Each structure stands twice: as structure tokens, then as C-alpha cells.
Amino acid sequence: MVSSQPRFVPLLLAALLWLGAAVPAHAFADGEAAATPVAEAALERFNREMRGLYGEARAQMLAATGPVIVVGFETVTLLHDGERHERRYTPAIYHRLKAVVHVILGVAGATLPALEGAAEADWRTGLVRVRDEVDALAPHIGDLGFSPAQAERQRRLLEATRSFLDEALAGDTLTRGQVAGFLRDTKPLWLANVREAAAAQLDRLHGVVSDWQAAMAPADWETLYVLILGPRMPREQNLQTAYFLRRLGAWREGERIVYAENVFDIDGARNLLGVMVIDRELSRLVFGDPYRMDADALGHAAQDVLDGLLP
Q: d(Cα 189, Cα 151) in Å, to the nearest integer?
């Protein structure tokens, strides 16, 4: 990854400590000399003790760091002054609006394998499944808590989908143009759902964070860290990241606001923060740059090695 989105691979853990880990003799490549058992044991103890000291320091520095907001998909949690405050911020309407939009995923799932030439892909069976689900959902749109305008939009989207399905299933073949036309024609409808879902979620998140900030000393707000939990794919232009960048006046993710990629629990998020805090202090001491150790420690050395291996 580029430096604007740090990976937080710690230097000591990635290089000095990890590379210093004792390796069983059988794990060495052919031709490498194995250590004597006594020397191996001494190295293992040394490595364990050094890493232990570093881990203890990390825990101590983490305890002195905060406040911290951990943002999950459904809930947001404030860790402050030894207390934990959790609030749900994703409203039901968010899920309902997005669920109807997922008809686009159903159509894509039914058709893309065949359009891309996947062997034995059966687009017709998939579209029949979509049709059955559209027919089952349509009568209930008025009972899902949508506003009148939202309900009308859902009906229009399902009706447009039904028309596409009828036309596609009436033919013997399916073309990319047919599917692209359906997606293009319905885009204003499902994009409106997406926008309203985002607005509903952001409104709730804004309310929760505003309450917390109002109850927090200004000095604490200035030292706040935000850790956003999530998988790889929503990282770019992530809604929650965008909110906190604007809220804290930050110009990039990776400093006080961190997208904790593939971390899904508070303990994992706090562990990541602990690594960040101690590594950045060590990086200041060693390199004069607090973010130097956010990059892969071996990456710089690798460039020189690669010049020899792959000139």
C-alpha cells in the first residue's frame, strides 16, 4: 500500500523481532547450517524476553492513550476514563433501503457467469429465482416502514426489474447489452436508495458523536483516536472514515483516524492502536519520522536486493 494508507506493519515486530524468532532446524532451506540445541535455546529465550519487554511497554503506553472511538458496522463504542460506552447507530431503514437495492446483485449473480463464459452457467434458472423473490416481496413494500416516496421508489424498482426479467426469460439468449441497459435504466432508483441509506446512517452517527464530544473535555477531544473496523473492499471512500476525517479536520486516514482493515472486534482494534502508539514513538527515536515504521521494514532493503535479483 502507499504511504497515505499505512499498513501499520511494525518495524520491530516485522523485522528485528520476527526475523529474530528461533526457527527449528528442519525449517532451514537446504544447505543452511543448523544451530546447536544449546544455542537455539539461548536464542529462543533472548527473543522471547525482548518481545515480552516490548509487549509490556505497548500495554502500558496503550493504557495512557485515549480516548478511543471504535466504529463497527452496527455500533460505535467510546473507550474513555476506564469506561466503555456503546451505542447503536445504524438504523433499520438503512438495511431496508439497501436490501431492495440488492436486487441488482441478484441479477448480476444470475447473469454474469454466463456473460463471462463460465462453463455450464445457467442464467435462466438464476433469473427465475430473482423473479420469484421479486414477486414475493412486492406485496409487502408498504409494510416495511418506508415513507410514501420511498415506498413508491421501491415499487418502481421492482416493477422495472420484473419487466426486464420477463423480457429476458422470453428469449433464448441473453446479451450484455440487455443487462447493461437494465442497470443503466434503474440506476437513478437504486442510487437514491443508497444516498438515503448513507444519510440515515450518518445522521445517527453524527448524533452519537456529538453527544460524546459535548460531554468530553476539549483536551480529550484533541487526543481522540478513531479506529474503523471493516474488510478490505469498503476501505476506499469509506462512509465512516469520511465522516471522522471531516469531523476531526484531518486530511488523511492513518494518523488519528485509522481504517483497521480486517479487524472486527474491539480487542483487536486496541491491540492495533497499541502497536501504533509504541512504534511511532520508537520511529521518532530511530528515524526522526513517526510514520516511517508504518511501512514494511523490509521494503527499503528489498529494493537493493531486487536490483540484484531482477535488474
A: 11
With H, G, I as helix, E, B as strand and everything else as coil, classify residue 76: strand
Model pTM above 0.70 = yes
Axis crossing angle, helix 123-137 with helix 148-170, rounded to the nearest 10: 150
Report yes or no: 277 and 58 within 8 Å, Cβ to Cβ: yes
pLDDT digits (tens, 9 = 90+) for 85-133: 999 999 999 999 999 999 999 999 999 999 998 877 899 999 999 999 9
Half-sphere exposure of 232 (CA within 13 A, CB side): 2
Q: What is the DSSP letter of 141?
A: G
**DSSP track, 270-287:** HHHHHHHHHHHHHHHHHH
Pairing of strands 225-230, 68-71: parallel
DSSP 16: I
Q: What is the pLDDT of residue 28?
A: 59
CB 170 within 8 A of CB 128: no
pLDDT for 29 equals 62
Alpha helices in 215-250 (DSSP H): 218-222, 239-248
Element holding 69 (H helix, E strand): strand 68-71
Q: Judging by DSSP bridges, how do beta strands 257-261 and 225-230 pair with one another? A: parallel
